[in-house]
Amino acid sequence: MTLLDTSYHKRHRAERLRNPEFAREYEATRRQIDQIDAVVRTLDHLRIQAGMPKAELARRIGKNPAAIRRLFSSEVNPELGTVAAIAVALNAEIKIVPQKAGRTPRRRRPPGDVAGVV
Q1: Element (H, E) at 15
Q2: Closest by CA position to 63, among listed 45, 49, 43
Q3: What is the value of pTM for the model shown?
Q4: Intervals of the chain under pLDDT 50
Q5: How would you class 91 by CB atoms within 10 Å of its CB: exposed for 0-12, middle for 13-18, buried for 19 or more?
Q6: Exposed, middle or buried, 18 (CB in 10 Å: 0-12/13-18/19+)?
Q7: How many CB atoms lie within 10 A of CB 66?
Q8: Sign of CA dihedral 82, 87, 93, 97
Q9: What's the whole-number average pLDDT of the chain?
Q10: Which domains does the chain have, with CATH numbers?
């Protein structure tokens, strides 16, 4: 098996992370991706615990089995409706839990928005 040399990309990312604005955006995006991954992993774990094949889960929520296989086997950004349907099919619920005080993400203003009014 040939390993991919990612040293250039690691150096390039490290260089870009020195820019505070880029570092903030990178961290926010990384946190979003990590949260999506955690939800998908939890749903897949619940599916396995229930002994439910992916095809059966797809049938229960009215989705194509290939879409469910992709959801659990690759990095995708699932629609919230699909996530909610899977949770219901697995007798689970989705909750949003506030983070500890002091970690509130800052909202970015759109370009040209000087006063914060869009």
Answers
A1: helix 7-16
A2: 43
A3: 0.71
A4: 109, 112-118
A5: exposed
A6: exposed
A7: 11
A8: negative
A9: 86
A10: 17-89 (1.10.260.40)
